Amino acid sequence: MDKFNIAIDGPAGAGKSTIARLVANTLGFVYVDTGAMYRAVTWKVLSSGISPDHTADVIAVTDRMDIRLAPGENGQQVFVDGHDATAEIRSAEVTGNVSQIAAIADVRRILTVKQKRLAAVKGVVMDGRDIGSHVLPDAELKIFLTASVRVRAERRYNEIQDQRASVTLEQLESEIAARDRMDEQRKTAPLVQAPDAVLLDTTSMTIHEVVERILELCRTEVGGGK
């Protein structure tokens, strides 16, 4: 089978990472979690004692740091300058600051170069918020995943069992809605559905159903898949 690239975009909590990883595993493609890359930058900035408001320092850190994504037993591992930061980039502090970091044009420019390089050999499933519209505009298949804010909040709430004492479902719903606005309104590469992307509303779909639908699109739209 000739390899091709799949771009999966969508708002926070839409299930992009889970779906993209399963699709990549089924096809034997490489999975690239761009959201984890922005989280890695945010974690590095915060752990270095730099305020997200200090744009020049944030850009300098992004330019210097090394980010490596690797498959692990429990999903993708994220290494920052050789340190396994997989768990740390999922902290509430990182979540609360990542949209601000991701809105910085030069941060996006630096990471976009890295992402394009990863996809140059084809056979990549990449997820994020600007993949089909900006990073991989020539991807052979583009998917825009979404779901209601309430359902996305419920999914995230179910993922953070160890943090439930410090956050409520209503808080998560409010935070996700606010993050949607930030992502959609940022000046550089905002969250939009690419004109040629297939919209999949996963509000009432299971993970298996979403994966099967994307594999079907691989067969019908691209001529690949299993």
From TrEMBL:
It catalyses: dCMP + ATP = dCDP + ADP; CMP + ATP = CDP + ADP. Residues 6-219 form the Cytidylate kinase domain. It comes from the Bacteria. Pfam families: Cytidylate_kin. It is an enzyme of class 2 (transferase). It is found in: Cytoplasm. ATP binds at residues 10-18. Its main location: cytoplasm. GO terms for cellular component: cytosol. HAMAP family: Cytidyl_kinase_type1. This is Cytidylate kinase. The gene is cmk.
